[in-house]
Amino acid sequence: MSSQSAASLQRKPAPALRTGRYLSWGRYPKAEHSHVYKPAWDDQIPAILKSAPDGSVLPYGLGRSYGDSCLNAGRALVDCRRLNRILAFDESTGVLRCESGVSFADIIDVFLPQGWFLPVTPGTQFVTVGGAIANDVHGKNHHRAGTFGAHVRQLGLHRSNDGLVVCGPEENPQMFRATIGGLGLTGVIAWAEVQLRRVAGPWMNAELVPFQSLSTFLDVSRESDGRFEYTVAWLDCFAGKNPRGIFFRGNHSAETGKKLRPNHGKTGPKLPFALPSWLLNRYTVKAFNAAYYRAHAARKGPSLVSYDSFFYPLDSVRQWNLLYGKRGFLQYQCVIPEANVAAIEELLDRIARSGMGSFLGVLKQFGSAPSAGMLSFPRPGLTLALDFAVRGERTLQLLRSLDQVVQESGGALYPAKDARMSPALFEASFPRWRSFVPYIDPKISSSFWRRVTWANQNEAQSQ
Ligand SMILES: Cc1cc2nc3c(=O)[nH]c(=O)nc-3n(C[C@H](O)[C@H](O)[C@H](O)COP(=O)(O)OP(=O)(O)OC[C@H]3O[C@@H](n4cnc5c(N)ncnc54)[C@H](O)[C@@H]3O)c2cc1C
Predict the structure, then answer these.
(1) Which of 84, 377, 403, 424 could tie 414 with a disulfide, CB 3.0–4.6 Å?
(2) Which residue puts its alpha carbon closest to atom 15 of ligand 1?
(3) Whose CA is nearest to atom 13 of ligand 1?
(4) Is 100 in the pocket of ligand 1 (CB under 6 A)?
(5) pLDDT digits (tens, 9 = 90+) for 70-98
(6) 164-179: pLDDT as tens digits
(7) Contact present, 195 and 94 (Cβ < 8 Å)
């Protein structure tokens, strides 16, 4: 591997700029930040951390987290997007070393034409390597490959007290486990080494299977896990306890002859402004869900599709998050132990009765591989994700009623999608979070972390 000679030069401190609006993907809550640091070189980060007051900064990637885990209201962000250099690649092993602001889209652009792909990818390619590590993201291959963190071989972490800490499964393993899924709180990731996987080309052998109940979904899912590397289902969340949906499954194809058109998937239409909220009501959303089901059920069976329409269908409309109007939206993603599948039925029933469901109901069975991080979200069970336009107290009330079902069933909520879970639900979701606290960098904090832990910590101190 070649070394990173440029980064060892001494550079001017990164300027602290006044912030424009740095939002998360759900555009809720609308946090204001005191300032934003935009380092261009990773050796500018120590000075930022040194000069910052305690608990005042948070690293920021591409803001694709939905809630407040990438926000730091009233305090500062370190925007890592300019740390976007590919540092080295070993063709014989597929190990990539890159700065933390490199996006998955960049990795695909450079390495897919050479026959390499990401080991795990979320439903958008517009995330950074640092953001993917900090949320230990999962993809449609969780049942085979586990989370993204399982494919990180090593990383360099800037810490305000300890300088650049190199960690991996063998070196500083506890700091490594804390940083994977560590919500950006353990330090600023400077670079990481990621194991890519070999593929023949950009094509996928995909198959669509319509289903009409949760038990059929489970049958199709179990039957598919052995034969298909990628599985996920879309749900019509207006169908209640017995949801209909479309099961998507696929494998990388051996097809090499067919060419993709240049810039495939990167330049789709763009929503120019937030749509008026009246456009999105129970009738339009219900009609969309019914039409989506009919259109996909008609295309059931196998087909050859490009990687981007298989992995990233939502990326084809840029800024689709504006669809939910000016007030933004909340995504609700939970995992429920499979033994309590009745809880999924209860959640779907409550959502259908509320009339507040959305287009994007997603259901996936997680595998049993233990996650790489201390605070990783994935665990064995069924994960359900749904979007809800923010309509004030009405929406929050529904989500609190869903929380009750999740908590009673021994489930958990995903911090990357959350903007409102209570400290009690966080405690129930991550009962061992206190053993993570010693690894937090004293200069770092986030809106999410203050919201879900301060009440718990104050309670512990007063006992
Ligand atoms: C359409 C869509 C589909 C998605 N599908 C999935 C999915 O299938 N599975 C899944 O798991 N997630 C999914 N997500 C969520 C997304 O993958 C995660 O929120 C991801 O972490 C976002 O990365 P980011 O670069 O935008 O980071 P941000 O959202 O900006 O930040 C995320 C976290 O990373 C930290 N961070 C960022 N950079 C660094 C750094 N250099 N050092 C240390 N910490 C850092 C931040 O402090 C924050 O805590 C989806 C999101 C969208 C919009």
Answers:
(1) 377
(2) 65
(3) 122
(4) yes
(5) 999 999 999 999 999 999 999 999 999 99
(6) 999 999 999 999 999 9
(7) yes
